[in-house]
Write a structure and sequence with these properties.
By secondary structure, this protein is an alpha+beta fold. Helices cover 40% and strands 18% of the residues. The chain is built from 14 helices and eleven strands. Helix 1 links the parallel strand 1 and strand 2. The radius of gyration is 22 Å and the shape is globular.
Length: 422
């Protein structure tokens, strides 16, 4: 399944492959760096750039079995800024989680702490253009079974080397947000099953399967998503700072967003005005980027400019009718303007396009709770809780149930990403 192209056809690979011995640092910088993806092949596979025997699950278990690692499912990893959200020992992950044959998306080790604390960095000997500088670069250790992965995101330039297994990559250049959007976004498997098969030719990604021993280069600001084919172990190296203005502006806006939690209302409005200036710059550089339009709409909303907020968010949804996060935001804006029938129809649309995204049920449930439609809100909160058992959602259920005169006992639900907390 994970190797098929459109309508069951053979997978198209539109990423260049080059041999490491034929690629000099000067040629890499001229043809690929900050320009386009490339896959580099090595004559002896991973043995050309590491010691593969020190990357096997058994070797890692023997050496570091009780070490804690961060794991998560694809969309949660992105929400956490590129980190897993659950801790598990390496042994428990390999012996239990990777062997779990339940349906659905498996958890994935996506950890920025593990690699540098081990002896693995000493096994790495990359070509000049991939040499690691710990001062300038972050590292990420990847370990997962088939169907695990990470949903669409972007960052400064990076490379990713597969020691064992295979990775299927989906990529879009900076001016093209992936259909369905980014955070909050579809999980990798849901995107592949629901969105990918129906893409028009103009919306299809740059894609390829990366084989064991190959290293892929991902340019700065390229949106990308990955799904593993078979048990996969890999290392990723990512620049800490952006090299180009586009990503630098995204970083500036992200810093402003992170400061919002501690803001007073007055400070929030001022900081949102700063964010609007940045988003307007970005929108001028990449006008079709729906992530920017959605964030611009949210920033306008925080300043109280509801008309401009709706205008930008409607544009995002017009450009991408499957962008669930933009649809959720738009529904909330209609509700704020008092257009309740319209808001409700848009919330229904959000659930229709993203039925496995728990946040859509939460947003619609909150709306119905405010409208004092308590029984309906209980049902939506319950559906969200089934997908993502957490205290916040159970509290919502209890609150709405109390207003509705209902009594619930908290169910015992085994959630895939929670069962690793041994």
């Amino acid at each position: 399944m994970l190797e098929a192209g459109y309508n069951g056809s053979r997978l198209p690979c539109n990423v260049e492959r080059v041999n490491a011995e034929d690629l000099t640092a000067a040629e890499f910088n001229k043809r690929y760096r900050l320009k386009k993806p490339v896959i580099v092949r090595f004559r002896d596979g991973a043995r050309s750039w590491t010691e593969p025997e020190k990357w096997t699950p058994e070797w890692l278990k023997n050496a570091y079995g009780q070490w804690k690692m961060l794991i998560g499912i694809s969309s949660d990893i992105v929400k956490r800024g590129g980190n897993g959200d659950i801790e598990a020992s390496l042994t428990s992950f390999v012996d239990f989680v990777m062997q779990d044959d339940e349906q659905g998306e498996p958890a994935y080790v996506f950890d920025r702490r593990f690699y540098n604390q081990t002896e693995l960095p000493r096994t790495l000997h990359m070509p000049e253009y991939f040499v690691v500088n710990e001062t300038l670069e972050d590292n990420i250790f990847f370990l997962g079974s088939s169907k695990s992965g990470v949903s669409f995101h972007k960052h400064p330039e990076a490379w990713n080397g597969v020691v064992y297994g295979r990775k299927r990559w989906f990529m879009y250049p900076p001016d093209k947000t992936p259909p369905g959007g980014v955070w909050l976004s579809y999980g990798t498997l849901e995107w592949y099953n629901r969105i990918y098969p129906h893409l028009k030719e103009a919306d299809r990604p740059i894609e390829c399967i990366q084989e064991a021993g190959e290293v892929i280069y991902v340019p700065e600001s390229y949106y990308h998503s990955v799904v593993n084919i078979g048990d996969t172990i890999a290392i990723g190296i990512q620049k800490k700072k952006s090299a180009l203005q586009l990503e630098d502006l995204f970083f500036q806006s992200a810093e402003l967003e992170m400061k919002r939690a501690d803001d007073t209302d007055a400070t929030l409005a001022e900081r949102s005005k700063e964010a609007i200036k940045i988003y307007l710059q970005l929108a001028e550089m990449v006008p079709q980027n729906t992530e920017i339009r959605t964030k611009l709409g949210s920033a306008y909303l925080r300043t109280g400019d509801l008309d401009k907020a709706i205008e930008q968010t409607e544009l995002a949804v017009q450009l991408d009718p499957l962008y669930a996060f933009a649809i959720i935001n738009l529904a909330g804006m209609y509700a704020t303007r008092g257009e309740f029938d319209r808001a409700e129809a848009v919330y229904e649309r959000a659930i229709e396009v993203a039925p496995s995204m728990w946040e859509t049920y939460l947003a619609y449930g909150d709306y119905l709770l405010k409208r004092r439609r308590y029984s309906e809100s209980v049902s939506l909160f319950q559906q969200a809780y089934q997908m993502k058992p957490q205290d916040m959602l159970w509290q919502r259920i209890q609150q709405a149930a109390q207003y509705a005169g209902l009594v619930f006992t908290r169910p015992s639900i085994r959630h895939r990403s929670r069962r690793v907390g041994f």
